Structures are given as C-alpha cells and as structure tokens.
Amino acid sequence: MLCNAECLFVGGFDEADMLAFKNTRERLRDETTFKDYSVCSSTASCEAMASTRPLLLLVLCSLTLTDAQFRLFNLRASDLSANLLGTTDAYVKVFCGSSNLGETSVSRNEKNPWWEEEFTTYKGQENDVMKLEVHDSDILLDDQLGVCQRQLKLGTHTHDCFLKKGGTLHYTYTLG
Questions:
Q1: What is the DSSP string of the chain?
Q2: Locate the C2 domain: which residues (predicted)?
Q3: CA of residue 106 relative to chain centroid, distance
C-alpha cells in the first residue's frame, strides 16, 4: 500500500511554505535531503518500501511541488510625476497571485527612484498575476501613481510599465 508522503527541501522553504505542506502527520524517518512525514495503514507496509523510499520521495516531490520560486528585483522608476510640492516620495506595493509580498521603502524627493528590495515567494505559479502598485507617500493620503499587472511566465523577464499619472516602472522577475 502506498504511503501518503510529502517532503520539504531542507533550508528551501520559509515558515509559511512549511505550514502549507504540513497537515497532521507523524514523522517516521529523516533522510539526508528530505524529511518524510507519513501516515500508513500499517507500519509494515511502509517499512517494506524502505529501500525505495528516497526514489519514491523524489518522485512524490516532483509531483506535489507545482509551485515555483518567484523573485522580483531591479525595481526602478523614471520620470515620475511630481505632486503639488514638486516632489515625489514613491514606493511600490507588490502582489503575486493572492499574496501580498510587501512594499519597498519610500524613496524621498526622487523623480527616478531605484529600490534595492527584492521580493521572493515559493507560492508563485505560471499564469498567476503579479500586481505592482506605485504610490506617492503623502502626510494624509498616499496618491496612487499607477498599477502594473502581468501574467507570470517561466523564466527571467524584464518589463517596462507606463503609469497612469506619468512615469515608467521598470522591473525584472524570475519564475522557476
């Protein structure tokens, strides 16, 4: 009888990713590269498969890990429109699929900001929509300068997005 198994690449997942993979299973064995969590109808059926366990886990991992690593980097903008005071304090909010990945720092008084932050998640999938919202930070209410949306494809891609209120957002992402 086949065991219900799942695996985690050591050091490859953050806490949220581990919680997504873990159900309520007992730990039976630790392999060098994988942690195997299994529940079987009988302990004997799992022990009989012990010699093929590493190969089985590799196959199961390749079948169950449909999500890919998504990384957004090299975020910068050019020719952003100024507010009434003549300055722009821009930042970017980053979304991938249904996940809010966070936001960049505010780049003060900069018409052509370059943000050093990188955003990464293991929950990205091909055809997910990435959304980048560019905002101008103000004292009372932040103005939205524009929104960029793109359907994700495997590989590394560099894009430019023209913002509704003027300026261009430049970025690079990798999915895979």
A1: ---EEE--BTTS--HHHHHHH--S-EEEEE-SSBEEEEE-S-HHHHHHTGGGHHHHHHHHHHHH---EEEEEEEEEEESPPP-TTS---EEEEEEETTEEEEEPPPBTT-SS-EE---EEEEEE-TTPEEEEEEEE--SS-PEEEEEEEEE--SEEEEEEEE-TTS-EEEEEEEE-
A2: 50-171
A3: 21
Tell me how many degrees the CA angle 59-34-154 measures, rounded to the nearest 5: 55
- For residue 156, the model assigns a pLDDT of 98
The mean pLDDT of the chain is: 75
3-state SS of 39-88? ECCCHHHHHHCHHHHHHHHHHHHHHHCCCEEEEEEEEEEECCCCCCCCCC
Q: Which of 72, 74, 143, 137 is nearest to 101 (CA)?
A: 72
* Contact assessment for residue 73 and residue 104, using Cβ atoms and an 8 Å cutoff: no
| Nearest of 171, 124, 126 to residue 146 by alpha carbon | 171
pTM for the full predicted model: 0.64
Q: Is 73 exposed, middle or buried (0-12, 13-18, 19+ CB in 10 A)?
A: middle
- Give dist(CA 51, CA 59) in Å, integer: 14
